[in-house]
């Protein structure tokens, strides 16, 4: 028997899993999920996994059949590889849910070329990751094995999937590019999108430097076509470059709210848009300076500025102008062509589009730059809105070469599992191990197909360590999402993560005698970054959270003072260290709730291709915890924003914050709805976006809506960039 011969009508695990959705004696049949898991392993996994008499025989087979890279094995004495396996086997790992095992074997496991048999188990995939990212360092490899098997650390999907394989894609998750205002740059960015989409993750592209539709083109009889035709070209490029059909190409176009094409840009997502302008698969995002919120609040007129004119007047691309600071000067300058609209009209259009499609993502660009400790300017983000790094523009010659090479962004992601991290006996060692694994991805990524991305990666060594399972942590410890204890825990956990990633990066800089580019101009070098931690006591305030962190090495003000001195003396290797990406399928494998979000359902329903519905009970769901698992769709979104804002205080990049709305708002949820319609309106989203802005949230990823006929729309599981 093989997987190809498996008769899905005769297996029992789907039926057992489906009984989760059938209450018995007015209770969820949680035991049925354990039965489904046991049946899946017995009926699917065990009879269809290749068996070997020895570990050496297994590795010989994998190398002979071109499954793993021989150089991986050559880095170690084989006795050490046997030691790693003995340790992993000794930890007696077991999946905790049917969904965890099903997702791993459906999406992550290595199979024979014909797809008939599994070539590895979960333990084997962990061993490959530990050995690969250990890169010959036995101590690091063993530490990684420890973090992985206890599910404290989860590499991003491309890193986890490709580690050690001889036929592998890139390890990087996603990229950020920008186009400058000339045809050479547009051509180059389309080529870059093709190349990057071919090798791996999604691509974010900022188009705000491009002149608007109707703008004159010097020396040519005619006018510019604006950003929409470029969006169409990019959408076609992503559709074409789809990794041989393995996935759809994925990209997002960003535009400033002060760009004259902003209304046409948003209009490309309207269902009734003309096919000539409608974009179906390209995601949309907008960068929003503080000035927009000020103008909308005052119900004032708003001027949109010609990027070409602005660049001519200021000598730098539109993206690099501080709109908030220069707004009045821009308005007063007669040399700059401008268009006038009502700020509230645009604000309502943003909300209308988010209601209809979930787009656009919102990047509060001034908020991001105020908190940015690295010299330079953040101008854009990635496909999931959590990566926020400085970029520099490039200049492209007629030969499509670089007259001056700027910097663009590649994203190296991984995630802590919060519940399991709180069980570690050495928080510092755990984080240090994760930082080293992520840094390996940065150091060994060869991205010469897009030199600006290669240049940015080599200069900044940027990584993005995140987190998942926050709601599970709350429920397990009897905290309600967004309450005082929950916020106290969130603050403490992300402060710890910040402190120990800084300490790990400082240690790398000391070992390698190297800091990231322009470290001397950063807020780390002058010490100002650390002042808020030194001048204030950040200790947990509630008794429950104090107890949780009592033995975790929570840093004191004196610890921060010592770290400040060490960083000023020896530097930091990584310009960026943290980012909260969305967690997709891999959160199921980790038996975790997704990212920092509240759950959607106590028993989640997933529609799987060719299989039907699969049900997943929330982690640690029991009579003891069920009260603490409130659905995101029944929750005041200000609680979610409060949680993210609390974490954002300590996260140097961004977070993929999703808003969960109902088309009919539950009574009493929002005080401004009292006496008004209970239907979701643009005003609701306007208020929530403004609340997030005032809480210093850097980005809003997506708006998901649950309709009256019990359907979700606006759901966007980003497979390219998610952990």
From TrEMBL:
<keyword id="KW-0067">ATP-binding</keyword>
<keyword id="KW-1015">Disulfide bond</keyword>
<comment type="function">
    <text>Provides the precursors necessary for DNA synthesis. Catalyzes the biosynthesis of deoxyribonucleotides from the corresponding ribonucleotides.</text>
</comment>
<dbReference type="InterPro" id="IPR039718">
    <property type="entry name" value="Rrm1"/>
</dbReference>
<dbReference type="Pfam" id="PF00317">
    <property type="entry name" value="Ribonuc_red_lgN"/>
</dbReference>
<protein>
    <recommendedName>
        <fullName>Ribonucleoside-diphosphate reductase</fullName>
        <ecNumber>1.17.4.1</ecNumber>
    </recommendedName>
</protein>
<dbReference type="InterPro" id="IPR008926">
    <property type="entry name" value="RNR_R1-su_N"/>
</dbReference>
<dbReference type="Pfam" id="PF02867">
    <property type="entry name" value="Ribonuc_red_lgC"/>
</dbReference>
<dbReference type="GO" id="GO:0004748">
    <property type="term" value="F:ribonucleoside-diphosphate reductase activity, thioredoxin disulfide as acceptor"/>
</dbReference>
<dbReference type="GO" id="GO:0005524">
    <property type="term" value="F:ATP binding"/>
</dbReference>
<keyword id="KW-0215">Deoxyribonucleotide synthesis</keyword>
<keyword id="KW-0560">Oxidoreductase</keyword>
<dbReference type="InterPro" id="IPR013509">
    <property type="entry name" value="RNR_lsu_N"/>
</dbReference>
<dbReference type="InterPro" id="IPR013346">
    <property type="entry name" value="NrdE_NrdA_C"/>
</dbReference>
<keyword id="KW-0547">Nucleotide-binding</keyword>
<dbReference type="InterPro" id="IPR026459">
    <property type="entry name" value="RNR_1b_NrdE"/>
</dbReference>
<dbReference type="GO" id="GO:0005971">
    <property type="term" value="C:ribonucleoside-diphosphate reductase complex"/>
</dbReference>
<dbReference type="InterPro" id="IPR013554">
    <property type="entry name" value="RNR_N"/>
</dbReference>
<comment type="similarity">
    <text>Belongs to the ribonucleoside diphosphate reductase large chain family.</text>
</comment>
<keyword id="KW-0021">Allosteric enzyme</keyword>
<dbReference type="GO" id="GO:0009263">
    <property type="term" value="P:deoxyribonucleotide biosynthetic process"/>
</dbReference>
<feature type="domain" description="Ribonucleotide reductase large subunit">
    <location>
        <begin position="560"/>
        <end position="582"/>
    </location>
</feature>
<dbReference type="InterPro" id="IPR000788">
    <property type="entry name" value="RNR_lg_C"/>
</dbReference>
<dbReference type="Pfam" id="PF08343">
    <property type="entry name" value="RNR_N"/>
</dbReference>
